[in-house]
User: Fold this.
Amino acid sequence: LLKQAWIRVVAGRNEGKEYIITKPETTIGRAELSDIGLFGDRNIALTHAKIIAQQGRHLIRDAGSPIGTLVNGRRVTECFLKDGDIIEIGSMRLEFHEKATASKVPRQVDVSSPQAPGIPTTPGVCPYCGSLKDPRTGACACSIGTGVPGKQEIGAPIQQPQMVGAAPRLVGVSGPYTGQVFQLKEGETTIGREPGRDIELPLDTTVSRRHARIVNERDSYVVYDEGSSNGTTVNTVRVTQQALKPGDIIAFGMSAFRFEQ
Assistant:
């Protein structure tokens, strides 16, 4: 059987699993008899959507679900799919692949810079120092020339955040864990959505079950990506392994943290 069209789960339960589309009508939902079963999120309808083979292509049709179906971030009732489209149903993210449109709609690849998701920002929080911005001026702890007490003035030496002597930790600067602090272990600290990880991040569905680990190697902390779907970045650059220094911004999926030591 030749694989002409298929769905891959990129976030949520059964992450990484693929479903080959061979039927004229493929059902997606929480029902046990769904062709593509999405379990664990009660916001997903029993029959949430359908993928229909039509005119040599595939279209997705929402089945009147309460929360709707999104394709590439836009809510749709029905639309044709093309290779690489991202379908969002509740907390689940699915990637659609189709050989017919893969050859006709080539992907644009920017070879000038590493491919990495940008670090998201949270309104009111500086993505660099992680402090709250002044609601009137927008100034934060790393601003200069603000005239705000406690802020650095132009012409004065720029002072770095005082992290000396602090226990190694990650401080949330954007995403659902903004402001939260996670202490790192002396040896190895595991990170992911899976229960039992040293740092559990269940609120971010873009984080893999076993996303990354941070290891203390001769008093230097090194982050290792564990083959996650959405990657690990350090200062916006996607990495598989990277030694950390105080102030580095590490992102797992859509959750970003500042490393302090």
Summary: Confidence is low (pLDDT under 50) at residues 104-121, 144-165. The helical segments are 99-104.
